[in-house]
Design brief:
It contains 8 helices and 7 strands, in the order βαβαβαβαβααβααβ. It is of the alpha/beta class. It has a single domain, classed as Rossmann fold (3-Layer(aba) Sandwich), CATH 3.40.50. A 7-stranded parallel sheet has the order 3-2-1-4-5-6-7, sandwiched between helices. The protein binds NADPH dihydro-nicotinamide-adenine-dinucleotide phosphate (NDP). NADPH dihydro-nicotinamide-adenine-dinucleotide phosphate binds next to α1.
């Protein structure tokens, strides 16, 4: 996919997995990509990979769980590029456990990173986007934000919350030609899911009509589509990319 020449994008959680794949795909489509995450050496590797392929990228240390770090990181990106036109809120963590045993800290960490982090970073980058009267905000939610998942009340709540944020913000900023959408991946092979044991993996596979896990590139291609001019009339949408695992409304 091409068509993002000259656009400035920022991807959180770009140091590995789905975020890295999104950064590669947006750069392949022509965007200049600001790569954000905590692990600076992995970010530098991703930036080098993009540049080696002829794209443009720069790494920014940014911890979405820290309001201070979000402010500093957003400022650094805006100083460097002047604006962010495509924002991909992808950074996410899990701290699984059954409700009765879940610690308050596991709830706070997951909500803080997955939902509050996206809220604060979007708020920090929205003013120039509003002024520019063009923007694409793409939030990476999850199939479990739609279906729920035993052992993940914190994670599923954060992802369902992101869907609420997506649809509410979509209504707020549509008049400025800014679209806000979510991509809801199913079971994707990344470092996050590499920790699943064989039993969990089999249980997941049994629910996938297409009979295989998804790839990070398949998520990234959906993100690149939502960032493109071809998706200009789509807003407030949740795009399921899950091999048929969930076929809801
Ligand atoms: P990984 O664990 O492989 O990668 C997570 C990324 O998020 C890393 O780059 C990590 O970078 C970054 N990150 C985590 N915490 C923070 C933080 N506080 N500040 C900045 N960056 C942070 O996960 P995936 O690639 O699998 O997942 C990406 C997104 O997709 C997540 O939101 C996840 O919930 C969602 N998703 C994944 C699915 C899957 O099956 N894999 C399914 C559905 C949704 P660093 O450690 O360098 O900060």
């Amino acid at each position: 996919m091409a068509g993002l020449q000259g656009r400035i994008a920022l991807v959180t959680g770009a140091s590995q997995g789905i975020g890295r794949a999104c950064a590669l795909e947006l750069a392949r489509a022509g965007a200049t990509v600001a790569l954000a995450a905590r692990n600076e050496s992995r970010l530098a590797d991703v930036a080098a990979e993009i540049i080696a392929a002829g794209g443009q990228a720069a790494a920014f240390a940014l911890d979405v769980a820290s309001e201070e770090s979000i402010k500093t990181g957003a400022k650094a990106v805006l100083e460097r590029f002047g604006k962010v036109e495509i924002l991909v809120n992808n950074a996410g963590i899990t701290r699984d456990g059954l409700m009765m045993r879940m610690k308050r800290a596991d709830w706070d960490d997951v909500l803080g990173t997955n939902l509050t982090g996206a809220f604060l970073l979007t708020q920090a980058l929205l003013p120039p986007m509003l002024k520019n009267r063009w923007g694409r905000i793409i939030n990476i939610t999850s199939v479990v934000g739609r279906t729920g998942q035993a052992g993940q009340v914190n994670y599923a709540s954060s992802k369902a919350g992101l869907i609420g944020l997506t649809r509410s913000l979509a209504r707020e900023v549509a008049s400025r030609s800014i679209t806000v959408n979510a991509v809801a991946p199913g079971y994707i092979e990344t470092p996050m899911t590499a920790v699943l044991d064989e039993k969990q993996r089999e249980a997941m596979m049994a629910q996938i009509p297409l009979g295989r896990p998804g790839t990070d590139t398949e998520i990234a291609q959906s993100v690149a589509f939502l960032a493109s001019d071809g998706a200009a009339y789509i807003t407030g949408h949740v795009l399921d990319v899950n091999g048929g695992m969930f076929m809801g409304a």
